């Protein structure tokens, strides 16, 4: 008996959802069953349902939040999937091509598929889906290029250093970072020195770190 691939599409645009459905329908070999969720609340209810079972979840990053349970984006939904449906394969679609953002998605969620929307055609979307459904990993061109660059600099970009850059980008002052991180000011200063070394900043401020982070696509 032919296996039916159960798919959940999490996206807040009806036109985009219908577009994905049409692309998937182009492969007549696929026997698929598609469910949809248009915001974090709907995704939460489907993912945490006691009988939830999805082979592949196609996930957008920008979604209406569900503040009651602290779900504010597709990134949060990705972590929820990892907790409740660890066997489900995740394909993330994002408009953000920044290296830092893509690196964080891979480090934090480890999706089987990651595509930058400006990269792919309907043909590549279908190829990515088929690869992931068959147990393989698929990254689009921009993801592959940025990942190669970020791997070179990974020694400086552990989770904590990436978190520092992210907090600075949100306007958090250095003196207030200890309230967001389990680190002392001196430990944070040492890590900022590592970040400056990576960017070849001999002397500089938080603004210099943010400028270089943006220039190199980390924010």
What does this entry look like structurally?
The structure is a single chain. With 219 residues, this protein is an alpha/beta fold. It folds into two domains: 5-143, Rossmann fold; 154-215. It has nine helices and six strands; from the N terminus they run βαβαβαβαβαβαααα. It has a six-stranded parallel sheet, with helices on both faces. α1 links the parallel β1 and β2 (32-37). α2 (40-47) runs parallel beside α3 (74-84) and α4 (99-108) packs across α6 (141-152). The longest helix is centred in the last third of the chain and has 14 residues, at 185-198. The protein is elongated, with a radius of gyration of 19 Å. The protein starts with a strand and ends with a helix. The model has no long low-confidence stretch (mean pLDDT 89).
Can you lay out the helices and strands and say which pair or pack?
Elements: E1 5-10, H1 14-25, E2 32-37, H2 40-47, E3 56-60, H3 74-84, E4 89-94, H4 99-108, E5 113-116, H5 122-133, E6 138-139, H6 141-152, H7 159-169, H8 185-198, H9 206-215
Parallel strand pairs: 1-2, 1-3, 3-4, 4-5, 5-6
Helix pairs in contact: 2-3, 4-6
């Amino acid at each position: 008996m032919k296996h039916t691939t159960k798919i959940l599409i999490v996206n807040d645009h009806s036109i985009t959802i219908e577009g994905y459905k049409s692309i998937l329908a182009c492969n007549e070999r696929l026997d698929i069953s598609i469910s949809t969720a248009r915001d974090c609340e709907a995704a939460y209810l489907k993912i945490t349902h006691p009988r939830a079972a999805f082979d592949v979840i196609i996930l957008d990053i920008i979604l209406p939040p569900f503040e009651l349970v602290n779900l504010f984006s597709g990134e949060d939904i990705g972590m929820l999937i990892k907790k409740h449906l660890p066997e489900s394969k995740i394909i993330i679609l994002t408009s953000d091509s920044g290296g830092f953002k893509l690196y964080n998605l891979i480090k934090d969620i480890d999706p089987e598929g990651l595509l930058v929307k400006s990269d792919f055609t309907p043909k590549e979307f279908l190829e990515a889906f088929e690869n992931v459904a068959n147990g393989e990993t698929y990254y689009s061109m921009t993801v592959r290029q940025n990942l190669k660059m970020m791997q070179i600099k990974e020694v400086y970009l552990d989770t904590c250093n990436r978190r520092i850059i992210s907090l600075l980008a949100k306007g958090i002052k250095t003196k207030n970072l200890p309230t967001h991180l389990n680190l002392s000011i001196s430990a944070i200063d040492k890590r900022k020195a590592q970040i400056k070394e990576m960017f070849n900043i001999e002397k500089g401020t938080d603004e210099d770190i943010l400028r270089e982070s943006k220039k190199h696509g980390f924010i």
